[in-house]
Amino acid sequence: MRSDLPELGELEREVMQLVWARGSITAEDARERLGRPLKESTVRTVLRRLEDKGFVRHTVEGRAYHFVPTEARGAVAAKAVQRIVDWLCNGSLEEVLTGMVDNASLSPRQLQALSEKIARARKT
C-alpha cells in the first residue's frame, strides 16, 4: 500500500470494512452485504478504485474477481493515525498518547493492555 494513504469515501470505507471482515470478497458478495440497493457495476467500480488506491488486490477464479486487502486493518489504521500525528503534533506520538491519557480517552482496560504491550516491546 502507498505510504501517503489516500482518502476513502463513505462507500469505499464500507466496502473496505467488508473486505477486512471477510478476507476475500467478490463484487456480488459485497453488493449483497452492503444492505442497500446498489448495482453490481457500482460495487465493481468501488473495488477497482480501492485497488487503484492500493487498499485491495484481486485474483481471478473462473470469471469472478476476488478482492483481498493488501494490508490488515490495524496497519492501515496505524498509518492514518501517523498522518494525523504528523499533521497536528509535528510527528510527536508521545504528545498524542499523553493527551489521550490526560483526557481519559482510554479505559482502564485499554490502559492496562497498552502498558503490557509497551512492557513486551521493551523486552525485545
Structural summary, described in words:
It is built from six helices and two strands, in the order αααββααα. The chain is mainly α and 124 residues long. It has two domains: 10-69, Orthogonal Bundle (Arc Repressor Mutant, subunit A), CATH 1.10.10.10; 73-123. The chain has a two-stranded antiparallel ribbon with strand order 1-2. α1 (10-22) packs across α3 (40-52) and α2 packs across α3. The radius of gyration is 18 Å and the shape is elongated.
Which labels suit this protein?
mainly alpha; Arc Repressor Mutant, subunit A; 6 helices; two-stranded antiparallel ribbon; single chain; 2 strands; elongated; 124 residues
